[in-house]
Input
Amino acid sequence: MIAVLIISAYLSLLLILGVISSRFFKGTAADYFLASRGIGPFFLLMSLFGTTMTAFALVGSTGASFKDGIGIYGKMASWSGIIHSACFFLVGIKLWSFGKRFGYTTQIQFFRDRFESDKIGLLLFPILVGLVIPYLLIGVMGAGTTVEKVTAGAFPGLFPGSGSGPTAVAPGAIPFWLGSGVVCVVVLVYVFFGGVRGTAWANALQTIVFIVLGFVTFFVIADKLGGVKEATRIVQRDNPDKLRRTVRDDDPLTRFKGDHAVYEKRLALWEAKTEGQRTVAPTPPVRPHGIGHLQFLSYLFIPLSVGMFPHLFQHWLTARSAKSFRLSVIMHPLLIMIVWVPCVLLGIWATSAVIDGRPVIPFGFSNPNAVLGKLVVVMTSPTLGGLLTAGILAAIMSSLDSQFLCLGSIFTNDIASHYLARDRLTDRQKVMIGRVFVVVIVLVTYLIGSFAKPRGVFTLGVWCFSGFASLFPLVFAAVYWKRATKFGAYACVLAAAGTWLWLFAQSGFGANRSFLFLNMMPVATMVAASTFALVVVSLLTPAPSKATMDKFFSTRRLSGAARQS
Amino acid sequence: MKRLVYGLIILLAVLHHDWWWWDDSETLLLGFVPIGLAYHAAVSLTAALLWALAVKYCWPTDLGADDKTPAALPEGGRS
Output
């Protein structure tokens, strides 16, 4: 019950923040979608960090290190520290500058101008929206599941529970549809009333919440395990493969052997049943196998996705000045380290931690993403459990809000205003349409996530990131390569989409979660293909007009334009 | 200085691939952080330091006017 109270208090705080931020709303489209380009360094840092760090930063990183060891930090976190800041510095500041100078609100507006093609928006629109939607569904479904698990037993009179096996809903738990619905409503309120300013404020609060709570959880659990040195010593003794990126022949593999013993018992029980009684056969645990060098290296391509995230583009444009980026460029790698290192340590400790002779995470525990929650339930108080849940929801909502708003912005500015109304909408109409779109997008996402429950969507996470990363050459060339042409841009997008679809099919449409192509993450091939298509086709087709080259690449002209204004 | 800073960032990206710690589970930093993890945490710290140098020495020179002037054109671009 204490968890419900803490979550309720936290969500109420966000609602209050949304109402307060709405009092600063100036009623214009520029204010709703871009906060009148007035976000300062601190809020920009919090927005960018909160948006790029999903619940994966807390829950997924702990689960991934539990499953595969410390290598997850090098694969995802330290690469992100280098590449994200590079994207902010090399791409974000340039796009902010173009956005301010030429009045852009969305990526598509920029690409239409830069590539002298009105129709490129019609090609990019379904791709960008299609890649954001699974990402949204993951957030909504993650929120519903988190609330359902944490509130088990809270309201036995209201919710009797249902089902059996791994998908069972415990008696008294707030059901999935209600938990995800409440989270959607809270996000909707502060996005609807506060626009991107409400989003930035909420993200600042949420980012602070999940950083602080991650730290508190780490120290409390470390203390319960007998201190940090003892916790690591036990891993060295029982599961040393989790402390490196190889598996040796003489490794004890205590966790794997324990999991396998449980699997054999479950299999024997399953085989003892008659054909009619049998449900799904138990799956054997995967033997630890280390990380290949090419696979590790190819992870560098995944964080390039931030260069093409439409929601990050929108946050970049909200900056008050180019100088506002400085704090984000410098602090982003540090914040990643602060959040990820404790979570990765908790994950490896969880493989071997024992209390009263029993493993804290029982053998046969098949859901790595539930490891952090399990550690908190077993080793901390209900109050910290409630607070950590608020932190997990904060991480989810700080990404959801920006994605909802950016889709509303794309639908309003690119589809409704430009393609349908031929740029004749008034400012007030844009704000109204933007809000309507946000409501519709939240509603549709909620209905799909809560009732259709496309469970396979969780496997799409890395594929969404890969899709955005495969379009990175487009934005980089648009900003830095004068010779990049309209046809080169089309070729780049089509090559990215084509290789994405082909490799996605090769992976069994995401079913093979450890799918590699040429021993690398598929994203490496996608980026190579889209870059090759962009360069070759651009060189074979006529260069952009002099007017466009002057507009985007002539510093002399830019200085003159700035002086006139 | 600009080339040096960008060169150091590229060098950091190269050094990210730490095959020398790949198989080491014995060495611990401060008695509890596995060396492979400690090294990559140091990569994150170094990244922050190098990006701070980039902000100081590689800051785009053609943004000065944009930083001081308000947005002059209507929202939505011109095409």
